[in-house]
Amino acid sequence: MKGIIFDIKQMAVFDGPGIRTTVFMKGCPLRCRWCHNPEGLSFTPQLMVSDNGCQKCGKCMDKCEHKDKCISCGECVRVCPMHLRRIVGTEYTPEELAARLLKDKVIYEMNGGGITLSGGEPTAQPEFIIALLKKLEGIHRAVETCGYCAPDIFRTVLDHVDYVMMDLKLIDEKQHEYWTGKSNRLILQNLEQLKKSGKPFVIRIPLIPGVNDTYENKVQTAGLLTDADNLQFVELLPYHTTAGAKYGMIDRCYEPGFDTDRAVDTDISAFKKYDIPVKVL
Ligand code: SF4
Ligand code: SF4
Hints:
This protein is α/β, with parallel strands linked by helices. It has helices spanning 59-63, 75-79, 94-102, 105-111, 126-135, 151-159, 173-180, 185-197, 215-225, 269-273; strands at 3-12, 20-25, 46-49, 85-88, 90-92, 114-119, 140-145, 163-167, 201-207, 231-238, 278-280. The two termini are 37 Å apart.
């Protein structure tokens, strides 16, 4: 069994308690129009090219045997003198990845940290992450999820983690479908499971100008969280104008469909109304 990941970030301090290693799983079922990790959307390896410093030497294309359609073979990566090309998407077995992550076990233990599985969407590779989480038992394990997966998968993941960071984008189903490509029914169903699980959790809301930063969406979100004793706090993450920077690097266009220059409404009164602790990052 293998999983595919697109990055591993050590010494992460914003992905759960303490100092952590965050694993970014490749592939996501949603297509949020503001996604700032487009290399995490597809489940297959991709060529990623930075043109910052390209000498136009042509060595990459001289080497390429698939000029009509890139097959992510990586041949051009090896010849670029400026190291501007890389293949994103590396396969690991659960054993290989666990062995790599456990090398920093002492650091996690000293700082109350652990491992966070993020993405992309980690629950989209369920067999792999369950096998991995089992191998990491004894280490603090967190998952950062959009919550879009079958309820039985979500329940099994909850059984194998100590901490959850769950994104909530829009409570209105039609709006959710418009901006992310999928209904939020499964997500809201899984939120109810999370609330009942007793696992400590954080809700993260990417605040997108004119999309979900309205008082109405915030108050609807807060209303769903009033009965959650295990909710630690809500984090609001205001949209950043650099979000589209990586699309060109994987040969995609960034077409967010909202006014990226508009100021984000970071008003937190909707959460205060229900005494829900909230942080604006
Ligand atoms: S990875 Fe590079 S060499 Fe391979 S097909 Fe794509 S552009 Fe060509
Ligand atoms: S090999 Fe590297 S530096 Fe040369 S043209 Fe290709 S990307 Fe640019």
